[in-house]
Write a structure and sequence with these properties.
This protein is mainly α and 243 residues long. 74% of the residues lie in helices and 0% in strands. It has one domain.
């Protein structure tokens, strides 16, 4: 009887997709242990793509289009004549066109970033002789992207609090560094603050966590390995921003 009970306690069913989704936020060790055995990809990717598309579609359905165009152009260094020409060209397009471009552009960007991350880590794994291939790293990238749902949730609240439709796309995500109070007179730094969200930082942190757990390497090595491409991009950006 004791042996039977022990066997029942040892054998645990593999967590389902919903349980893994919860574990990504509450117990990433358990989540990445499950993904190590079964590197699923489609569920988290579709979850992020669908909810991101829905919130962008909703945003463009309520935004004041004329105000939206003026807000976009106000952030550009145009002369009065250039601004007038640009406004005329943008107003010639429908809001549905902007919505379609926003949804498609956002979806392509999410997929591309996941593919690039997975490709890079696959190359590193091949050079190190690790056992994990592209399918594992793509799964890790997709699941580590789930914190983007926090951006979606924050955007929903922001839209609900802006009934007049005068909501800048830069203010849509309340978790960006810009909306959290990081301001700068340097336009490049301002652009970075407007685009970098805490949900992105969380996702990259999960990538580091998962990489360390799977490869059994140190925190320092895992951090350097995962962050190297980001540091290169930021370094190149900084050269142009402050030159």
């Amino acid at each position: 009887m004791t042996e039977s009970n022990s066997d029942q306690q040892t054998i645990r069913p593999e967590p389902g997709l919903l349980e893994t989704s919860v574990n990504i936020f509450s117990s990433p060790t358990e989540a990445f242990r499950a993904l190590q055995k079964n590197p699923t990809k489609l569920f988290p990717l579709l979850l992020v793509l669908i909810f991101n598309a829905l919130v962008l579609t909703w945003y463009f359905s309520i935004v004041d289009y004329s105000w939206f165009v003026d807000d976009i152009l106000s952030a550009q260094s145009f002369s009065e004549d250039e601004r007038a020409d640009a406004r005329e060209g943008m107003m010639a397009l429908s809001i549905n066109t902007f919505a379609m471009l926003g949804v498609l552009g956002g979806s392509v960007a999410i997929i591309a970033i996941n593919l690039i991350q997975a490709g890079y880590l696959s190359l590193v794994a091949a050079l190190r002789g690790d056992e994990y291939k592209f399918t594992h790293w793509f799964s890790l990238a997709c699941w580590a992207g789930l914190p983007m749902l926090l951006t979606v949730a924050g955007s929903i609240v922001t839209i609900l609090l802006s009934p007049n439709g005068q909501l800048s796309p830069y203010d849509l995500d309340p978790l960006t560094l810009w909306n959290l109070g990081v301001v700068s007179t340097n336009t490049s730094v301002q652009a970075l603050a407007q685009s970098l969200s805490l949900s992105t930082v969380w996702g990259v942190s999960l990538m580091v966590f998962g990489y360390r757990q799977w490869t059994q390497t140190s925190w320092l090595r895992a951090t350097i390995t995962v962050l190297s491409p980001y540091l290169c991009v930021v370094g190149i950006w900084a050269v142009f921003a402050f030159s």
